[in-house]
Structure formats: C-alpha cells, structure tokens
C-alpha cells in the first residue's frame, strides 16, 4: 500500500475536524443568536496586532467579557461600542457578526464529504492490513 492513502486520510481528518468545529460553534449562533451591543473595556497590543476586550450583558445574566482580535487597526477604542452575537442558552458562546458564516450548509457538506473520504481511506488501510 502506498503512502498516499495515509496523506489523504490525514488531510480528510483535518478538514473534517475543522469544518465540524466551525459548524458546531456557528450553528447555535445562527439559529438562536442574539445581537447585542458591547463596550470596549481594554485594547492591548500583541505581536500580531491589537486585541480588544469587550464587555456585554446577556439578558438575565451577569456581565461577560469577550476578547477578540488580532486587528491591525482596532475598530473601536476604550469606551467605544460594537455589536456581538451571543447564544442565549450559553452566553459565553459569542462572536462578532462579521466573523459568523452566512449559513452552515457548506460546512455540513464539507464535513460529510471529508468524513466519507476519511472512512474510505480507513477502510482501504484496514483491508490492506488484513489481506
């Protein structure tokens, strides 16, 4: 058996995990996410740019903080406001509206296809080892 099967399996595993992770994070926010205004409480510098610490108060819950970045030019300064989208069932799950995909159909298809390729590669490896 040639090494290409292992490389294809590894690539399919990476694509599957990444697309599934994005899907699991984005899906609840797309379905039931609440758009809410957050205030910038700190702007910090790292090697890759600026990080912003936002504070938002979910409905019926205590205030929470969310760090986002890096930005080359921070979109707000301390005291400025920007929108976030959070999951009301899990208020710690939050993102910026522009970082949320428009839909999850492509992520679902990518997960299914890469999972099928991964399963085919594993089957090929198992059959090669047995025979």
- DSSP helix count? 2
The ordered H/E elements are HEEEEEH
User: Tell me, what's the shape?
Assistant: elongated
What number of structural domains do the residues give? Answer: 2
- The overall strand count is 5
Rg calc: 20 Å
List low-pLDDT spans.
none
Largest sheet features: 5 strands, antiparallel
Q: Write down the oligomeric state.
A: single chain
Instruction: Classify the secondary structure makeup into a structural class.
Output: alpha+beta
What distance lies between the first and last C-alpha atoms, to the nearest angstrom?
A: 11 Å
- Please report which band the strand proportion falls in: under 5%, 5-15%, 15-25%, 25-35%, 35-45% or over 45%: 25-35%
Helix coverage percent: 40-55%
Output mean pLDDT: 87
Spatial ordering of strands, largest sheet: 3-2-1-4-5
Q: How is this fold's topology laid out?
A:
Blueprint: H1 4-32, E1 34-46, E2 49-56, E3 64-71, E4 81-86, E5 94-95, H2 105-130
Antiparallel strand pairs: 1-2, 1-4, 2-3, 4-5
Task: Briefly say what this structure is.
The protein has helices spanning 4-32, 105-130, and strands at 34-46, 49-56, 64-71, 81-86, 94-95.
Please explain how this structure is put together.
This protein has 131 residues and is of the alpha+beta class. It is built from 2 helices and 5 strands; from the N terminus they run αβββββα. It has a 5-stranded antiparallel β-sheet with strand order 3-2-1-4-5, with no helix packed on it. It starts with a helix and ends with a helix. The mean pLDDT is 87.
């Amino acid at each position: 058996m040639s090494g290409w099967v292992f490389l294809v399996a590894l690539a399919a595993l990476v694509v599957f995990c990444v697309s599934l992770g994005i899907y699991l994070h984005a899906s609840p926010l797309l379905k039931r996410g609440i758009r809410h205004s957050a205030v910038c409480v700190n702007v910090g510098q790292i090697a890759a740019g600026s990080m912003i610490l936002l504070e938002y108060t979910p409905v019926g819950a205590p205030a929470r903080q969310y760090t986002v970045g890096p930005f080359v030019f921070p979109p707000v300064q301390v005291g400025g406001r920007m929108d976030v989208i959070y999951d009301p069932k899990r208020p710690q799950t939050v993102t910026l509206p522009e970082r949320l995909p428009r839909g999850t159909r492509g992520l679902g298809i990518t997960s299914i296809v890469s999972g099928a390729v991964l399963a085919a590669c594993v089957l090929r490896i198992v059959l090669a080892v047995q025979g």
